[in-house]
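Re: How this chain folds, sequence and tokenised backbone to follow
How to read it: Take the token row as a discrete description of the fold.
Start of record: The labelled sequence and token lines come straight after this line.
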Amino acid sequence: MTLVGDAVSRSRFILRKLVGTSRADREADLIAHLRRATVPQILLLGDSLVEASCAGTGNPRVARGSYSGSRIADVLAAVSRVKGAHLWSKVAGAVVSIGLNDAQTSEGDDLEFRRLYFRSALDALSRSFGEKPLVMLTITDIASAGQWVSRFNRRLIAMENDEIAALPTAKIHDVATLFRSAVLEAGLVYDAAFRDGVHFSPVGYRYWDPLVEQAINMVSSTNIEKAPDQANRAMFSA
């Protein structure tokens, strides 16, 4: 490597340490993970709630691809990138937790239009998986108060959850209801599960992570034990 090239490389490394890894880099990590995989992988896709979760970590059958700020269009793009890299045959199915960032208040008051957009994107996501199992998580209700609460539209979140629940070609895991019940049954105030009204506190993850693990198991019980076809056997033995 030239001196200039070495300097550029070092500068990029320092910049990543300072501002964090870019989404493109993280998607590249997902692609690299799939290339290395020797068994079919369950994709765990979503936004910062999943990114900060410990669910699926250490599981050799789980490929994490969740990024802060992600919307449903980003999940569709990640799926497209996996297919474009000719790695779709290494995917056993997916767990997807998405929709919160699609409900930001700054993006307009035409909630019906935004609902229809979310519905069409959900349909495209579901169709993109074909026969592979897809488990969709409902969007967890935000807290009653907090630093970030005003950035999101509660009504639109509820509308998006209606669309997720009505999706006919995916399994639905009603995390929103189960999470609230778990927190309240533990004798806690619901808002105690959040650090800013939107992102979970360590207490919140204590009750949310097991629900994501349940969703991973839902995919596993459906398809993970099926033997790969002849083409897949060749790929995994390569």
User: Anything to note?
Assistant: The longest strand covers residues 91-97. The beta strands are 41-46, 62-66, 91-97, 134-137, 171-173. Residues 1-20, 224-238 have pLDDT under 50 and may be disordered. The longest helix spans residues 202-224.
